Amino acid sequence: MIKKAVCVLLAFLMAFAVQLTAFAADGGTDLRLKFDENGDFNILHLTDWHCDYPLPAVHKQLVLESVAEADPDLVVLGGDLSEASHEDQQAAIKEICEIFVQAEIPFVITFGNHDYMHGYTIDEMFAFYKEYGGDYFIGTDENPELFGCGTCSLPVYSNDGSKIAYNIYCFDSGDRAVVDGEDKGYDSVHADQIEWYCAKAEELKEANGGEYVPSVVFQHIIVQEIYDKLFPVAESYNAGLREYETVTYDLTPIPNYSNVKDGYIFEKPCPGYYNHGQLDAMSKNGDVRAIFCGHDHYNSFTVEIDGVDIINTPSIKPHILLRKINWGPRAITLHEDGTCENRVLMACELAQKEGSQLVSVGAVSDIEIFIVKIWKIFVDISIPFWSKVMGFFYNF
Predict the structure, then answer these.
(1) Torsions phi, psi for 104 (to 5 deg)
(2) pLDDT > 90: percent of the chain
(3) What pLDDT, in 10s, does the model give residues 365-389?
(4) Non-local CB neighbours of 165 within 8 Å, separated by 6+ positions
(5) Is residue 235 part of a domain?
(6) Is the peptide bond before 253 cis (omega within 30 degrees of 0)?
(7) What does residue 79 show for φ and ψ, rounded to 5 degrees?
(8) Strands in 93-237 per DSSP E
(9) Does residue 166 lie within any of the structural domains?
(10) In CA terms, which of 22, 208, 268, 364 is 20 to 30 Å from 5?
(11) What is the pTM of this model?
């Protein structure tokens, strides 16, 4: 009798498990990242907040209106968020996390150099996001032995849940590159993280029938090769040089706009001093469609290098007047066919939408919006000219 009862119970549990699995496959309880019925997956990249505590109304309103505009399935926090004191840092992180918990949006963070400056270890900072983000913070420190914290991969499944259709890599690009006590400049994605990426890409490839899974990358500090496309290698020591591990560049007043696919450059990019071969590895595999970076607040360019789009997302910290062209986060849409597209949600344009409160909270004024409109027209007309001039100059 007892044996029969146990068998009946096991049969019931197995039937329940089958029903639960079927329910999950239909999307009822499936918490995995998935493409929608149109084959789209939306990401909002919010980087370089550099905000005080409590969170200023300007920052919060821009975030809320950007979320409403982008309707993201995932938010990627690009690092350099709170500038609060050590005593307030934990509360500041809680306040930031509450925005996405209340909106019920999954989010992750790729740490920036300023996140290392608050008197906490980066592992402690990561723990704060996990604590206050709860189930909505989906970042992991996938291999704690790797450099930094929070390097991970996030699979995005096909709409029917049958396979991984896209993959999202998140990297901690560190703080400063210090060797034998000497500060060499900014840090970068390290060799062990690149080795981990290569192994992960091969693992996904094997599970995908021998084809690499289309991917995008998020990190704070841009790759060093950006200078190969924007500035000439220095052959003589002129004013305005920038030196990296093996190369010194001549920083011309206007970069080589002929290599810029779209967007604006209002400051010189600041990559890491050492190049550990990240772009080479990703270009060789051919799986990475784009590397999205922050760090350089006033840039919003896209530059293609060896088949990979290097994309800078501007800061959401309020910009000075003429740089307000570049002020706002980036909305990214992955497509299940392996492509992706993106655009900057410019604060001055969001402010003109019906119901926007960006003007009322003091983020931007009507006169600023007008000036930025005129300035944008002038810049957009000028860029094709400078693209031709600099292209001729660099190829001369």
Answers:
(1) 60, 50
(2) 87
(3) 999 999 999 999 999 999 999 999 9
(4) 35, 156, 157, 158, 213, 214, 336, 338
(5) no
(6) no
(7) 95, 170
(8) 107-109, 152-157, 164-170, 176-179, 182-186, 215-218
(9) yes
(10) 22
(11) 0.92
In total, how many domains does the chain have?
Answer: 1
Q: Whole-angstrom Cα distance, residue 198 to residue 44? A: 26
Long-range contacts of 310-313 (CB under 8 A, 24+ apart): 310/222, 310/223, 310/225, 310/226, 310/279, 311/263, 311/342, 312/222, 312/263, 312/269, 313/45, 313/47, 313/78, 313/344
The single-letter code of the amino acid at 279 is L
Q: pLDDT digit string (tens) for 68-127?
A: 999 999 999 999 999 999 999 999 999 999 999 999 999 999 999 999 999 999 999 999
Range of the domain at 206: 32-227+259-395
In the block, which residue shows the tokens 């006590």? Answer: 181
Instruction: Give Dmax (Cα) for the chain.
Output: 92
What strand order describes the sheet that includes 107-109? 107-109, 74-77, 40-46, 330-335, 340-344
Residue 69 is assigned to a structural domain of this protein: yes
State yes or no: pLDDT of 236 exceeds 80.
no
Q: Which two tokens stand for residue 191?
A: 């060799």
pLDDT digits (tens, 9 = 90+) for 2-57: 434 434 333 333 333 333 333 344 444 466 999 999 999 999 999 999 999 999 99
User: Kind and range of the H or E element at 396?
Assistant: none
Q: Please name the helix (run of DSSP H) or strand (run of DSSP E) that holds residue 45, with its range, or none.
A: strand 40-46
Find, among 35, 355, 318, the residue nearest to 167 by Cα: 35
